[in-house]
Amino acid sequence: GAGVSQSPSNKVTEKGKDVELRCDPISGHTALYWYRQSLGQGLEFLIYFQGNSAPDKSGLPSDRFSAERTGGSVSTLTIQRTQQEDSAVYLCASSPWGSGGRTGELFFGEGSRLTVL
Amino acid sequence: GQQLNQSPQSMFIQEGEDVSMNCTSSSIFNTWLWYKQDPGEGPVLLIALYKAGELTSNGRLTAQFGITRKDSFLNISASIPSDVGIYFCAGVGWGGADGLTFGKGTHLIIQP
User: Fold this and answer.
1) Nearest chain A Cα to B41, which residue?
2) Per-residue pLDDT tens for B43-74?
3) Helix, strand, or coil here: A17?
4) Alpha-carbon torsion B81, B82, B86, B89, what sign?
5) CB contact under 8 A, A40 and B104
6) What is the DSSP string of A84-116?
């Protein structure tokens, strides 16, 4: 499909395990965002990639969280030593727009639901 | 960072009623956007506003960019069952993540 693709759609893991969540943005989109959404709550910003610039990591809640974006396309969000409070839906979004212009017009994936037992 | 106050937090309405929700901030924004999230899905952009005072419609939806640049509202006329979901406002100002800030959302529930 032509949309943002995230995998896995659901992940159940045990406390203390590491998990990786993948995001395939829309081809050609230079901006990529990760958000976290706890049950019934709003969108918590995690990290933002824009082209070849250094990512904005200001939203990562702890050093257990990291993300990379290879070749300006696919991104992986890694959570080490998962905790129960990490349970949430992790949403990825991409955008063809850089700074200025139509900034804010994001295309979201369906999310990866993470459950930590 | 910049914050958006979105209200109401939830709305219980009857099918056919009109809906109004808004976002306010103490900061100025250059762009206001409204997204809708269906259950189990990611948010989808409904309307984007780029100029203070701008009023834009998309079918039964109407949104306005406040003249002070510190607020925006979204109206839905003659609600139907598929309008159920979470509506998020978002603003683009200055700061991290390309200056993009989201409100906490308005849960719209339509009673039969």
Assistant:
1) A110
2) 999 999 999 999 999 999 999 999 999 999 99
3) coil
4) negative
5) no
6) GGG-EEEEEEEES--SSTTTT--EE---EEEEE
